[in-house]
From TrEMBL:
PANTHER family: KTR SYSTEM POTASSIUM UPTAKE PROTEIN B, TRK SYSTEM POTASSIUM UPTAKE PROTEIN TRKG-RELATED. It is a multi-pass membrane protein. This is TrkH family potassium uptake protein. It comes from the Bacteria. Pfam families: TrkH. Keywords: Cell membrane, Ion transport, Membrane, Transmembrane, Transmembrane helix, Transport. It is found in: Cell membrane. It comes from Microbacterium terregens. The chain crosses the membrane at residues 85-109, 149-169, 213-237, 249-271, 321-349, 369-390, 427-451.
Length: 468
């Protein structure tokens, strides 16, 4: 029986978009962005009852689904309660991961996961599964554990955000927020912290709570839990008191995260302690705390107490480095990921010591993981460089401000020097693309493009070029 032209077109599109989990992820993310762009464009989503401009609605939708927190408008004043509720829903969808969420819904409906659903969910928990070929035992989450991981994702999201909201509520009320209004703002802040987004529902952002260290500490804890990644949370849940049974991924993620947290705080403390516009007027204790808070937020949190645009240029460079690294793999954070940095650092150390292989905690890291780590850094640096050049040319703004905001977009952080809100529509679209590419992941993007590439069944002669 001959199929109709629309049917053939539908089958072709379905085959192309679902040929790999990576390509399917790109399509679903894009579809969600378009959906939320339409919803945020509605007059009901705006506080003044007028339709939001396309560029602003699209950028906010991308920033929401990609859990970034950058915005071309003031979220607190521009959007109505309905618009803020859409943003709240969007960041939770984006934070959990669209493939993970789809798998959870399928698990709830059908009570079981088929092989295809497990592969899709597994690719969301580990980008290496986007590649063809066998999956070795070193994968973060084994295929048979996917169902348990999905339950962990859903349960941990609900429990952690709920606990954060309960802890935040008293601080909001004490700070002068009405009890009924705090019932909404507490879950909103909790979701923004755990998903590492950084949108704030109130005018002035965190400035009214600059001296409330309990609230700021709760936000830091939420950002940390969201940034380490669901596979690490799953590992800690299974083997919390048995460190030897932690996966190599969990160990590298936690160690690198803690090291960067303290290193970033020390750098900000040294560089900003005498800046009168940031830390200069604070006491030693306040300066130390704010340095740690800024270090945590530049990793992907996106909240800010001090004005980012007033930081010294040296501090902006440190912040850009931290944002580029980001958080853990399969987390709500962005960037190239801390495990990527850890693998490359271990490779450099092994090369310096003349070792044949890269090893850590009694395990050997295979060469394909090292190549992927190198590819992620190369792709990320290329994306940031091209976006910086393009936006700098369009806006003619200071390159240091452009670079900071571009890396914040790529790392889905949400901190800004103030440049993003002043961009023209063409620059806004470039920034939106940068956010999208940063969130879906450079590995996922490359795998989506190359999903149908053919395997090479032969090898060419070896010749070694001079390197270094």
């Amino acid at each position: 029986m001959t199929r109709s032209a629309p049917r053939r077109a539908f089958d072709y599109i379905r085959t192309r978009t679902t040929s790999s989990p990576a390509r399917f992820a790109v399509v679903v993310f894009a579809a969600l962005v378009l959906l939320f762009t339409a919803l945020l464009s509605l007059p009901a989503s705006a506080a003044d009852g007028k339709r939001t401009e396309l560029a602003d609605a699209l950028f906010t939708a991308v920033s929401t689904i990609c859990v970034t927190g950058l915005s071309t408008v003031d979220v607190a004043t521009h959007f109505s309660p309905f618009g803020k509720f859409l943003i709240f829903i969007g960041v939770n969808i984006g934070g959990m991961g669209v493939l993970t969420l789809a798998s959870i819904l399928g698990l709830v409906i059908s009570k079981r996961l088929g092989l295809r659903a497990k592969l899709i969910a597994a690719s969301d928990s580990n980008p290496l599964r986007s590649h063809g070929g066998p999956v070795n035992e070193g994968q973060t989450v084994r295929l048979g554990e996917v169902g348990q991981l999905l339950r962990t994702v859903a349960l941990s999201t609900l429990v952690i955000e709920g606990a954060l909201a309960v802890l935040l509520y008293p601080s909001l009320v004490i700070a002068g927020v009405g009890p009924l209004e705090a019932l909404w703002e507490a879950p909103f802040y909790a979701a923004m912290a755990f998903t590492n987004t950084g949108f704030t529902p109130n005018v002035g952002g965190l400035q009214p709570f600059a001296d409330d260290y309990l609230l700021l500490t709760v936000l830091m804890v939420g950002v940390f839990l969201g940034s380490i990644g669901f596979p690490v949370i799953y590992t800690l849940w299974k083997h919390v008191w048995h460190v030897r049974r932690w996966s190599l991924h969990a160990k590298l993620t936690l160690i690198t995260t803690v090291m960067l947290f303290f290193a970033g705080a020390a750098a900000f403390l040294i560089l900003e302690y005498n800046n009168p516009k940031t830390f200069g007027s604070l006491s030693a204790w306040d300066t130390t705390f704010q340095a740690f808070f800024l270090s945590a937020m530049t990793r992907s949190g996106g909240f800010s107490v001090v004005p980012i645009g007033e930081l010294h240029g040296s501090s902006l460079v440190v912040g850009s480095m931290l944002m580029f690294v980001g958080g853990g793999s399969a987390s709500t954070a962005g960037g190239i990921k801390v495990t990527t940095l850890a693998v490359l650092a271990l490779a450099v150390i092994s090369e310096a010591k003349g070792r044949q292989s890269v090893e850590s905690f009694g395990r050997r890291i295979p060469s394909d993981v090292q190549r992927v780590a190198l590819s992620v850094v190369a792709w990320g640096a290329t994306i940031c460089a091209l976006a910086t050049i393009t936006i700098a040319q369009i806006s003619q703004a200071d390159v240091s401000d452009v670079l900071f905001d571009v890396i914040s977009a790529f790392g889905t952080v949400g901190l800004s020097t103030g440049l993003t809100a002043e961009l023209t529509d063409p620059a806004i679209y470039v920034m939106a693309v940068t956010i999208f590419m940063g969130r879906i992941g450079t590995v996922t993007l490359a795998a989506a493009v190359a999903a149908t590439s053919r395997s090479q069944l032969y090898s060419l002669p070896v010749e070694r070029p001079i390197v270094g």
